[in-house]
Fold these 2 entries.
Entry 1:
Amino acid sequence: MKFNMIDLHMHTTYSDGTESCETVLKRCQEKNLNYISITDHNTSLAYEELERIDIPNLYKGKIIPGIELNTKVLGIPIEILGYGINYKKMNILAPKIYLPPKERNLIEFKRLYDKCVNYGIVLSKNCSDNYDPNTFASGFFHKEIVKHKENKKLLTPESWDSSKIFYRQYMSDPNMPLYVEMDDLVPDFITASNLVRKAGGLVFIPHIFEYRDNAERILNYILDNYKIEGIECYYTTFTQEQHERVLSICKEKKLFVSGGSDFHGTIKPDVDIGVGYGNLRIPDEILNSWINNVTLF
């Protein structure tokens, strides 16, 4: 059965994506997506650029203004998605809560460096000199760690093979030796979700199973303690079982459903707009229950 497709989770060069707004719009048109949302981390500056772009010449579909905000639950760094935000208001409010990426990256680098040394991780002598604070500390350290084979015994095989898993499994888990404390840099869940609502948006929980062993604990805590509008039920890495699990929760709790590829460009070369690893299909019918609750771009 053919249906119209959407992608409500993607990143541009305004956060950690490698593609410009224009390139993203062109790719979305090539995929014939009829609804999209750019959800850069802690900023909506992409939408101010979109004001200056001839959008109809690049993309014929509709755009839901969005953002992905860093926050924490149970001491674990997670993210929330905001949809239908007033992006101008968000771009005034967010810098009051979030540090500029370069400044945060540098702080995270220093803290992770100390954790690696204390854990016995072998690092190159000029490690600190080679760090570019425009890049994530997690990716830099992962590349550094896997240069030295003697470190392999200190990480799980999946963390050795993936910087993303290294971040989730070691840096984001309070029970792990490389956990990086960010409580002074990342707002709590209520502060982050209130930021979305002050900008007129809806709060969704993205990619919950990316939090691995902590996923169920985080999800249950959020459902029991916080107000949210929806859950990202279609996601690049979700298994069918995981997909059905969050869909059933949304049905039971009367929550809205979203979905996205989490496109980042060459940072995640296997993840393409609209289709993820190639078989992601997000039907636009999931918007029927909530599209009238948000303002389009």
Entry 2:
Amino acid sequence: MNILVFGKDGQLGRAFHVLLDSLLPALVDKPSIQYVGRAECDLTNVVALSDLLNQFQPKLIVNASAYTAVDKAEIDVDQAFAMNTRAPEIMAQYAVDHDATFVHYSTDYVFDGEKYGYYLEDDVRNPLGVYGKSKAAGEEAIAGVFAAGYGSGQYAIFRTSWVYGDGGNFIRTILRLAKDREELKIIDDQYGVPTSATWLAQVSLDFVVDGNLRVRKFPSGIYHAVPVGETTWHGLATLVVQLATGAGVPLKVALNGIKPIPAVEYPLPAPRPMNSRMSTDKLGQVLRARGDMSKLELLNQPWDEAVRSYVRNLAKDGLI
């Protein structure tokens, strides 16, 4: 089987590379895996993307690529839609035409954040900025292609939030600032769930393939994939500084120097949803029906467990 992973240089793409490499030695029938970044294929080039798909002939496509510069997207509209809408649509069309499986990732930014409680997969999309609009349009394009595809192929769109991994992210930014500043002002009225790229790669791969990397059958659609619990940016920053300090990392800021502020005091070009909490009941129901209790246990992992491990590893590796 051929597996094509887009976004190899991003946090999620790197997590997939590590995960798949760890699984290959135990397999008798090893798949052929190709990892694609910008150097290998410009996803805004429709012809180049189509040629790559047709030449490699993947049976599983993992699209971990995206235009994620949320604020820059407000002025770089065409690029955002090319990456987040048109490219996934082409991948989806290939999957339909070749009876392949397509895995795609979306975001809490497709919602306006005004709902009280946890968002469900079928809640109305109402993105606030260009990034969210481009991702929402991508979801709609994928669903539209498969709906018109006479049942060929299958797809899973995993909506997630606040991703961190091997690369630039909020946690590493906080740790960098904490080494230089005695005070940090962090938003405390936006709620969401920090999601480890490693965790997300494992959860989504377990959903679409078995232990031998053979594709499973599953109900196509959108699934929310975040760990259990919730926090604010201020809550996450406080935990991260506490963990780093406990690991012996010398920081200039103390816990009482992390000041909570409302989002209105930290204006940005692109609006953010105030509530990014998402229910994972739909994903859990499929895992429960399969009897995948170990996979269900991973889905139900509290968000702070992976954060603790992540910060400890950064400290151990001297990356703070």
